[in-house]
Specification:
The protein is an alpha/beta fold. The strands form 3 sheets. Strands 5-4-1-9-10-11 form a 6-stranded parallel beta sheet, with helices on both faces. Strands 7-6-8 form a 3-stranded antiparallel beta sheet. A two-stranded antiparallel sheet has the order 2-3. A hairpin with a 2-residue loop joins strand 2 and strand 3. The longest helix has 16 residues.
Length: about 230
């Protein structure tokens, strides 16, 4: 008789990638890599100053290539041995895939992909496989390309898929997210009643009502969670 694996859904935020050395998307002073977010991370900025937005994405992409997944990403991927794992990430890096996670839903896009201006929900490979994309790059049909990032002011096309995955979860884990950024934070409302829910963060997460809080970094917390699940 084949035993079905329990479904474990993990929502990850900036805290897990910060441990790999990436700057968080929104710092307390409204700056991101010394740029104002309004200048490099909004739909209006993409339309008004496309060159700066594309070049900023190029810079972040190079940073991602220079860094690697940390133990938090790796431990999460390793859970696939015993669980049917879906990762829902708010991050735009590809560290989960690098660590070995096979089912990743990118809520806010993937920095290692691009898309056309008229189809921002369809990821494409970067032109010629290059890390740096020209501001005037086009696809083979002449359609203008842009970074595959969901900027402030744009719809989040993968929310429906994320909500469906969350509704099927037998275990729900939040790693490195304050649960203050919507619509992603609203996913916790889709969990089935009574399932185990955990949040891993070095600081208390006030929004995580009804969660078991593991006060630790992503790596330390995933070590603890793995042990807890093993002994459950």
């Amino acid at each position: 008789m084949v035993t079905m694996k329990k479904k474990l859904v993990a929502l990850t935020g900036a805290g897990i990638s910060a441990e790999s050395g990436l700057s968080t998307f929104r710092d307390s002073d409204g700056l991101w890599e010394n740029y104002r977010i309004e200048e490099v991370a909004t739909h209006e900025a993409l339309i008004r100053n496309r060159e700066q937005v594309v070049r900023f994405a190029n810079m972040l992409r190079k940073q991602c290539v220079d860094r690697k997944p940390n133990l938090g990403h790796i431990r999460l991927a390793e859970l696939e041995r015993d669980y049917d794992v879906t990762v829902i990430t708010q991050n735009i890096d590809d560290f989960h895939e690098q660590a070995g996670s096979s089912h990743v839903i990118h809520l806010h896009g993937n920095l290692m992909k691009c898309c056309t201006m008229d189809r921002p929900d369809v990821p494409l490979d970067l032109p010629n496989g290059e890390l740096e994309m020209s501001p005037d790059a086009t696809d083979e049909h002449g359609n203008l390309l842009r970074p595959f990032i969901v900027y402030f002011g744009e719809a989040v096309p993968m929310m429906d898929a994320a909500a469906r995955a969350t509704m099927e979860a037998d275990i729900f884990v939040v790693i490195g997210s304050s649960l203050n950024v919507y619509p992603a934070a609203g996913l916790m409302m889709y969990t089935k009643p009574g399932i185990p829910r955990y949040v891993i963060d070095p600081k208390p997460v006030a929004a995580a009502v009804g969660f078991e809080q593991i006060m630790a970094t992503a790596s330390e917390g995933m070590n603890k969670l793995t042990e807890m699940l093993r002994n459950d």
